[in-house]
Give the backbone structure.
Amino acid sequence: MKIGIIGAGINGSYLAYRLRKDNDVVVIDKKAGFGNKPCSGLISERIWDFIPKKDNLVIHAIKEARIHFLRKTVSLIFKPKMLVFDRQKLDEYVGGLAKQSGAKFVFGENISDISVGDKTVSVNDKWTFHKLIGCDGANSVVRQKLTNKEQKFRLGIYFYEKKECFDDWVDTWPLKDGFAWRIPRGDSIEWGVIVPQKLAKREFDKLVERNNLKPEKIYSHIIPDDISIADPKGSVNTIYSSPSARNITICGDAAGLVKPWSGGGVIWGMTGADLLIENFGDFGKYERSIKKKFNNKVNLNKIGRNVLMFPTLEYFIPSKIQFDADWGIL
């Protein structure tokens, strides 16, 4: 089977690495090469459940997150530990695994046309595939081809302070429908906010002023805030409204597979990729498996995220909580 994957980020490369064993796989990306993905690179040890372990990609380990409420600090003790990665090198590593497996990569190619037939999908009138997977991020062109459902987003704004720091904890401050953060990255400290787009600049400016910071280069990116292929109020045919759509699907950030509390998407995206591989002959079944795995987690954790906005509730939260940063409180 000939499979096309749009997007050579970590999820697209991981799918190529896994699917290449029994298929002809081509990955197409508008970027010039692997990486260049805006991301804090804070990922749990579970990543080694998906790819061969390579210790030199890890900068150091994070044991806890300290949530600073107005009158109290709560420590979330991570189980498993979180690891700070050089995200560029991690993306290059996973892409390298895919290339070694025999997957082909085409860089510098913008996707301008996707035509879905009864048995094949055509991309830019250059490639024809039996199946097409969109792993092309929050602004996925493949998702736009599949559904008119409006995607919800938050905005992350961040920068790096040039200051060596190997603290084994991260600091966070609750904000309306989001949070501000401080992450030690060895040779630097990452500061940022993730909130609804209309609030992002104001909250970022507050963070900078409150901590007397002087950003030199500021980064930003949009973060999906719902699951595109698993509308909890819709039928399983949310996307697959026509027989031809059985040849095309989405995964990773393109499918909104990011954690509601942090916006991180690597483990959720790879988990979704495994579900896609498991159900590869039936994309409708894949959609149902995504709903079963993620919908309750998304809805419950969005409620938890909103509860944190009530100041008086901090008194009822224990000072230390065992916390699974991928799936929630233990």
Observations:
- The chain has one domain: 2-329.
